[in-house]
Amino acid sequence: EGAAPTLAAASRARRAREVRFVGVSVDDDPFLAAVAAHRWSIPYDVAFDDAGAADAWQVDRLPAVIVVDAAGSVRHVGRSAPTAAELERWLAEVGAPRID
Question: What is the distance between the alpha carbons of residues 21 and 24, in angstroms, rounded to a whole number?
């Protein structure tokens, strides 16, 4: 599960600007990845990767969380499950703070 609950909660929050969450599964079996996404109630799209995206983003450890700003610049690369506070700080830095 790792980062899944933190990312799911953050993706459901109201934000000052639109944020797109996309999960990328590097599991060997796309069906098992879909089952895990359903079991963990992941509310955002999950794409299957045959290691092409992982290689392109230089992901060498999972979970990895990559925050890309509206201009397409990588702002943060987390190579472990972020805390909720850490993820919220990263999102605020790209202009998408939580609105409660």
Answer: 10
Q: Which amino acid is at 71?
A: A
Give pLDDT tens digits for 67-90: 988 898 889 888 888 999 999 999
Q: Residue 23: exposed, middle, or buried by beta-carbon count in 10 A (0-12, 13-18, 19+)? A: buried
C-beta of residue 19 within 8 angstroms of C-beta of residue 93: no
Question: What are the structure tokens assigned to 50, written together?
Answer: 């045959």
- The CA-based angle 31-35-41, given to 5 degrees, is 145
**What is the residue-averaged pLDDT of the chain?**
87
